[in-house]
Amino acid sequence: ATNFGIKEALNQLGIKAVNEGTSTGSNNFSNGDIIDSFSPVDGELIASVKSTTREDYEMAMKTATQAFKTWRLMPAPQRGEIVRQFGEKLRENKEALGKLVSYEMGKSYQEGLGEVQEMIDICDFAVGLSRQLHGLTMHSERPGHRMYEQYHPLGVVGIISAFNFPVAVWSWNTALAWICGDVCIWKPSEKTPICGVACQNIIAEVLRENNLPEGISCLINGDYKVGEFMTKDTRVPLISATGSTRMGKIVAKEVAGRLGKSLLELGGNNAIIVTPDADIKMTVIGAVFGAVGTAGQRCTSTRRLIIHESIYDKVKNAVADAYKQLRIGNPLDETNHVGPLIDKDAVKMYENALERVVEEGGKIVVDGGVLSGDGYESGCYVKPAIAEAENHFEIVQHETFAPVLYLIKYSGDVENAIEFQNGVAQGLSSAIMTNNLREAERFLSHAGSDCGIANVNIGTSGAEIGGAFGGEKETGGGRESGSDAWKIYMRRQTNTINYTTELPLAQGIKFDL
Ligand code: NAD
């Protein structure tokens, strides 16, 4: 069987073969227990890393803090030039890194490439931004005074990321943090550590070529315990954490307890509203890609379809028909649509969700099930399933990180659909399919979707770099990537300068000596 060029890709990315020991980023802060990374694609051992001990972490912090002293003094556009070179290196490594993402995480090769493209896009965005980190000027109430604000680098930014976007989330944070003058310490998911090493190797080469300290980017490995080194550390002014709401609640408390800043990108429970004025063909494509892309393991995956009763059966049948055409298998084989789940625990959660929805009174429309046999040896391949359900079901209220789509019927006005859409704890992505301007505008109005992302005639998944990305409620409130998301990576300072020989006080307060 072909290995789809995985060996060559690993080699290009500087990952050691399984029999050659553990891989590290070139600034190695990992000397603890071995973490083996197995591919959900074929169950094979990809490579190994070591985890970061407390001592290793202290070294990383020291190295990062030292690097910050140089990096923060470099003019922002020059830092932008380094990020530009990083983007170039990513272009050179796009296929290899895309392949590794696909092999270690299990998403399709196309989506793996898409993830690397997102990294390239955020670099381009950050390069331009490096000349625009602007504050405002204000008019002082005192004569002969000037007042303005400026943004300064924060320091060491701690990044904790999830398995499902093993490379892009890191770059969304680092590309902005770097142009802002910060240095970063990254703890990738323990489920995708090899992607972390590959990324570190790429940025390390850029830094080396520019005679810059590698501490600008530090990689640490391990599970939540290693994450806690950072969340508890007062030397880390900002923690950017992407993952489950469960994790976010713990991290938020920890960081707030020391009055640090946190940027949280947590779970979603995303819905598409399908109104009587929807274009059914577009709806089917948007819903199916949204529900089965990355095997339903995107934070923006479509979990609920809220369909008007007048077109309910038509939409249900069209989506169910489309599911019949889905090919499930090795995600590196581009003829397949759906790859595996990340691991067997994820498979259990998927099976549990399908049992629960039936127990709660739901009805299966498209059968699920775990696949076995040729090509499915890893035990992580499942059939995307569809169930009719009600919005208040406990399982529907919960984010199941797997390809399970719930169909929910609404009647009457679009307001009723919006109420369902908003009637969950999460608030990440939402969409409406309609050609009716009034419905679309109501969905986007103050009384409309309560999510961080609200789309019209587009599905819930797949966001562009230029917009701020994130969600409300249990999604955590953070915003990353485009728009003014850069501001969280900097500290704001208000400056007032007196160029007279008098010292008038604000608010006209008199104080004579
Ligand atoms: P997870 O919460 O299990 O783990 C995420 C990361 O947090 C890992 O690196 C993990 O080691 C670390 N972690 C866990 N507990 C911690 C703690 N107490 N202290 C410090 N670090 C800790 O999530 P996952 O299974 O890897 O990812 C899936 C989840 O991520 C889904 O809920 C998905 O919606 C969410 N997600 C959200 C976004 C977004 O932008 N909103 C993007 C991707 C994924």
From TrEMBL:
Q: Which stretches are annotated as coiled coil?
A: none
- Tell me which UniProt keywords the record has, alphabetically: NAD, Oxidoreductase
Q: What is this protein called?
A: aldehyde dehydrogenase (NAD(+))
Q: Subunit comment for this entry?
A: Homotetramer.
EC number per UniProt = 1.2.1.3
Q: To which protein family does this belong? A: Belongs to the aldehyde dehydrogenase family.
Q: Where is the active site?
A: 265
Where does the Aldehyde dehydrogenase domain lie? 33-494
Which CDD domains does the record associate with it?
Answer: ALDH_F7_AASADH (cd07130)
The answer to keyword Transmembrane helix applying to this record is: no
Keyword NAD found: yes
